[in-house]
Specification:
The chain is mainly beta and 48 residues long. It contains no helices and seven strands. The protein has a three-stranded antiparallel β-sheet, with no helix packed on it. Strands 3-4 form a two-stranded antiparallel sheet.
Length: 48
């Protein structure tokens, strides 16, 4: 993980094909309480 905050996380990924850079991705994610639909803090095991 590149960066974590109280309610979201960011990952930086390099995708290579045959040794050549094909893409760089920087997805951002959040964990959502399925009953309320609201963001919840990151689980302790995912925090730095």
């Amino acid at each position: 993980m590149d960066r974590t905050e109280a309610l979201r996380w960011t990952v930086i990924a390099r995708i290579e094909v045959a040794g050549r850079l094909a893409a760089i991705a920087q997805p951002v994610g959040v964990f959502i309480d399925l009953q309320t639909g609201r963001p919840v803090p990151l689980p302790a095991q995912m925090r730095p």
